Amino acid sequence: MLDDGLAESLIVSQMGHTNIKTTKEHYYRNRRNADQIMSELDKVTAL
Fold this sequence. Notes:
The chain is mostly helical. It has three helices and no strands.
């Protein structure tokens, strides 16, 4: 939800938290960076 730009207030209400910080600290993993890393690794293994 965070990666797709959903409003933090909506995410907080959906998760049942009172603060977006709780969601970010315990549940959020930035997948965009992981995707970028995997893309780079794919390039290396293609060599």
